[in-house]
TrEMBL record, chains A, B:
This is Endonuclease NucS. InterPro entries: Endonuclease_NucS (IPR002793), NucS_C (IPR048301), NucS_N (IPR048302), NucS_N_sf (IPR049173), tRNA_endonuc-like_dom_sf (IPR011856). GO terms for cellular component: cytoplasm. Cleaves both 3' and 5' ssDNA extremities of branched DNA structures. Residues 27-117 form the Endonuclease NucS N-terminal PH-like domain. It comes from Halorubrum vacuolatum.
Length: 288, 288
DNA sequence: CGTGCCAGGTGCCTT
DNA sequence: AAGGCACTTGGCACG
């Protein structure tokens, strides 16, 4: 692990450090006064201001202001960074193809440049995703319906993969769509497409079927939307389609474990300080 | 504009600088070896490694590795940052409510800490959005259909706002849904919901209508999906519903202006260097 | 504040 | 490479 940091470098110096950092495959941050231009899927211009530019060895580029989680401009991984001094000013350009996109950062002044060699794990262990919800449903199928038996997951249909496919106690096919959070009308539409696809498939989709067979199949494919909750419109749509809602979310409510982290509270000797942003400005403290 | 930067500070020093930076409302970067825990809408654990932590005065917190455009962990704006030294180690916690979420970064070592006061424009001028596409449609309504006349934009319906609503040369209502890029089946579903809502509205939705009136209204509400292109499934669905597709994207193909940025090529005297990431590793250069 | 919807969405996986 | 979809999606505008 190494960190190189230069304070208020000349543009030439900055270029030199950038070159070296590129070669080393470092993670780079450049803080300075700059303008940003982007052209590709869309196009944008950003006037002069202080920004933090992050250049990653995988080709990602991020331009951050002092606000927001989302970078004001960026380039995805796989792009190619290129630095140059032009008219005495540092310029960083990041390009990619497919789609063709270019990000250009023109520095008026470089306040600081750092380059860091990064090591260590990148793999995040995440809980509470839709996959966890699926596991929960498969472990306790009765949550879907009294006699529900899962047959397959990610079952392919003409409309796309069905999250969980199975049969109910009457032997009728059941299409289950899982959502880890409260859903809107779009999720009902998604479920409807799957149900229609399975129905068409089971009725032979164009092949000849006796009327009563088709009618039976038509009604017999059930649709179940599993989600913690629904918006009103979604509920209406769901009712219109004759589908069911099962109120269920990812297991082991993450909300509880929040406390474990939040209750990092005081049983200790050391220093601390807080910065309250959301509330009353940046007045410090509120905690012990 | 000021930059404060400390190299390999002690945990106490780091805390001190963090406190000061919080008070000043600075943009902060902390590079160090750490583990990260998150609990809230989901929950996650990230093992030890070198990461770049960014703390913004608006409450946003980002944890970046050397890969990816998306932070490996984060907290949205509006959160409250809190720093402390615990068991001799720097800890940064970022909390928010609604939903309750906590991000905890435990530093094993702090390689570098910087605090920067940020000034300057944050407003991005973006071209090529859906709004630009709408403008284009309103300026040249004939692109939708020979005699199309727009009546309103963002017209409210029971299913949500219709992008552009108007009448065709036969006086029949037309529902237009705009998409700035190639679309899938979901967009067709969206259009279908709007068309159904308008149809219900015009047929009186439950009120009595003579059969022929209802039938007329039924067929007469047209649906038009405006997008550069469709996937096959979307096209099929669109045909099933009897809707139309108009192949149109945001104006002034951004693709061309890419060249303006890309053709930053050489008519100059100065230094430059490039870092090819996507291709052949990090061998430098390829340009003049 | 919730609902709905766009986004230069990004990222992941399958065909 | 394109399609389909989840995401701690984020962000905005509106009721």
């Amino acid at each position: 692990m190494t960190v190189i940091s230069v304070h208020a470098p000349s543009h030439r110096e900055a270029l030199w450090e950038l070159e070296s950092a590129f070669e080393r495959g470092d993670l780079i941050t450049v803080f300075g006064r700059c303008t940003v231009s982007y052209a590709g899927r869309a196009a944008s211009e950003l006037g002069v201001g202080d920004r933090l530019l992050i250049l990653k060895p995988d080709g990602a580029a991020l331009v951050h202001t002092d606000e927001g989680r989302t970078p004001v401009n960026w380039q995805p991984p796989g792009s190619t960074h290129h630095a140059a001094v032009r008219e005495g000013r540092l310029r960083v350009r990041s390009k990619r193809t497919n789609p063709a996109e270019t990000l250009l950062v023109r520095f008026e002044r470089v306040h600081q440049l750092s380059a860091m060699s990064v090591t260590g794990g990148r793999d995040l262990e995440l809980h509470g995703s839709e996959e966890d919800l699926r596991t929960r449903v498969l472990e306790r199928p009765e949550l879907i319906a009294p006699g529900f038996e899962p047959v397959s997951t990610e079952r392919e249909t003409a409309a796309g993969p069905v999250d969980v496919f199975g049969v109910d106690d009457a032997g009728d096919p059941v299409v289950v769509e899982l959502k880890r959070r409260r859903v809107g009308p779009d999720a009902v539409g998604q479920l409807a497409r799957y149900v229609a696809a399975v129905r068409d498939e089971l009725t032979g989709d164009g092949e000849f079927l006796a009327d009563h067979e088709a009618a039976t199949a038509d009604d017999s494919v059930r649709g179940v939307l599993v989600a913690p909750s629904l918006t009103d419109r979604a509920a209406d749509l769901l009712a219109d389609r004759g589908f069911d809602h099962v109120a269920l979310g990812p297991p082991a409510d993450a909300g509880e474990s929040v406390d474990a982290l939040a209750d990092d509270s005081d049983d200790s000797d050391d220093l601390d300080d807080s910065n309250t942003t959301a509330g009353s400005g940046s007045r410090p403290d509120e905690s012990a």
